[in-house]
TrEMBL record:
Keywords: Fimbrium, Membrane, Methylation, Transmembrane, Transmembrane helix. Belongs to the N-Me-Phe pilin family. The chain crosses the membrane at residues 31-51. One of its GO terms (biological process) is cell adhesion. Signal peptide: none annotated. It comes from Cupriavidus agavae. This is Type IV pilus assembly protein PilA. Pfam families: N_methyl, Pilin. One of its GO terms (cellular component) is type IV pilus. SUPFAM superfamilies: Pili subunits (SSF54523).
């Protein structure tokens, strides 16, 4: 009977089946411990870089709120200076269309003070004071101050200064080391 099977196999080459290979040990599927450790190390390195960058991004966005709230008072201050020749002050109450300092606040800003000493060039200031808690570390208790200038030349400009860390400031703002007396 074996001869008949061999004869049939020779007659039909497509019916030949490879002989079974000797038993080989099968490798188990999955990842090795070293491969998993490498992946964890890579994720750790990426997180070590990404988290500080994200914190800086959050602080810059919080700073922009202060700059935005301060900038919102520019028109009223410029108008009061143009018509009356004074720098309005909102420390004790609203004046010249500017609400009180504590009425102008945001999620990260405690209040926006308007004041300054009028001169021919301007001299009016708008200061946004950041909160003492609940915001980025580099902004805690800091301020951003806009100072009017160039009013005597017919084109009002605003200089920006801040006590916040330099890495959080936009290019138009300069960092100051000391807190102004009028803060």
């Amino acid at each position: 009977m074996q001869h008949k099977l061999n004869a049939i196999r020779r007659a039909c080459p497509s019916s030949r089946r490879p002989l079974a290979s000797p038993a080989r040990p099968r490798r188990a599927g999955g990842f090795t411990l070293i491969e998993l450790m490498i992946v964890v190390a890579i994720i750790g390195i990426l997180a070590g870089i990404a988290i500080p960058q994200y914190q800086d991004y959050v602080a810059r966005s919080q700073f922009s709120e202060g700059l935005s709230l301060a900038s919102g008072q520019k028109a009223a201050v410029t108008e009061a200076f143009s018509y009356k020749g004074i720098c309005p002050s909102n420390a004790s109450g609203g004046t010249d269309g500017i609400p009180t300092a504590t009425s102008i606040q945001g999620s990260y800003v405690a209040g926006v003070e308007v004041g300054g000493t009028a001169s021919e060039a301007g001299g009016c200031t708008i200061t946004a004071n950041f909160k003492e808690a609940g915001i980025a570390k580099g902004l805690l208790g800091k301020y951003v101050k806009l100072t009017m200038g160039n009013a005597d030349k017919g084109s009002v400009t605003w200089a920006c200064q801040s006590s916040a860390d330099k890495k959080f400031l936009p290019q138009v703002c300069a960092q100051v080391a000391v807190t102004p007396a009028g803060k």
